[in-house]
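Example complex used in Figure S2.
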Amino acid sequence: MTVNGSERRRRSDGERTRAAILEAAARFATLEGIEGLTLGRLAEYAGMSKSSLFSAFGSKEELQLATIEEANEIFDREVVAPALEPGTPLERLRALCERFLSHVERYVFPGGCFFASAAAEIDTRQGLVRERVTGAVTDWLDLLEQQIRDAQKEGQLDAAEDATQLAFEVQALLLLANSQFVISGGDASPLDRARRGIERRLELAGAAPGTPYQRRRRST
Amino acid sequence: MTVNGSERRRRSDGERTRAAILEAAARFATLEGIEGLTLGRLAEYAGMSKSSLFSAFGSKEELQLATIEEANEIFDREVVAPALEPGTPLERLRALCERFLSHVERYVFPGGCFFASAAAEIDTRQGLVRERVTGAVTDWLDLLEQQIRDAQKEGQLDAAEDATQLAFEVQALLLLANSQFVISGGDASPLDRARRGIERRLELAGAAPGTPYQRRRRST
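Predicted assembly (440 residues):
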């Protein structure tokens, strides 16, 4: 994911139109699947002519790749960039988790996390679409792990913890919260279960108790 | 899921043929999606005529529902029934986790857990297929939770633990292991991360250390 959102340049009108189409495409893909993302079906969903989409994207794969790129931008804007504002690595780690859960709860994508949805769909396929999706998931896991390692260096987390293992456990809770939230049609209790599980796990790893996620959530 | 496998009656030849077709269908669905499971594509995958499949199942939805039922039977046979053989509730809980991870590792379904795959795909849809899939996932979570409650009653786990929360955390680790194993094309390290995470979590909940999963895995 593009981590440094502040350096993003301003978009021209044409770029804004394209981005609006791709935002619609990203939302559509979390409902109907990234394999269901054809020029014809997107045209119907976004209320556009198929020919104008064809001239903008050319092929289904091009459309899929552009949609993944746009989903990365959205994820960066909604989750990553706000969480990486100045703070300690442990604060950033907690903020990444909370921003992730809040982007699910706020229906940034109507079918939950774009990348979780796409990864589950194309996990057994081959090709560029799969590569880009798995690349984004790996970047996210690396980002969590980096905050853990930095927090260990600064003494906020126990240096004896296996950072990769801890990132795996945090990610597991985030992803189950996402999938249960979506499948239940918007029950928030799995999000709170993830919050409790992550906070308890971080404290087990030596973290000083954080602001309760419940309260922090209200202000994000 | 059908929990009591021992009461399953013997199948006739016709039923065995039908079961073989449906096993192929269940495997196919974890690769190409349960929405990709059409009579025509299954005929091609299983090397049969489309007309014979049509006479057996009639419609795509009928085929999907029969496939889910067969996947339940397979999951029961491979995961649930062996784990519920006599033992303490804590042993059964550990065995359920290990059998789940081992069924992923043994490629019982080539695209990983059938129900995780199907649930991610149809989470935003409506209808009977969705109901049956989410029902199976709920049954599995209830089964984990029941072992936890029973283990609490017998003093093997701390009575102060929230059983629903603990089942959620265990399930989170199992599902991330499943998805990372599939997406990596068979890297076993996520399975071991889940084993370590679950064992540590159970010990935090008061469990006496169990047989290391590594060793137990060899004998299952």
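Chain B has a mean pLDDT of 89. The domain at 69-219 of chain B is CATH 1.10.357.10 (Tetracycline Repressor; domain 2).
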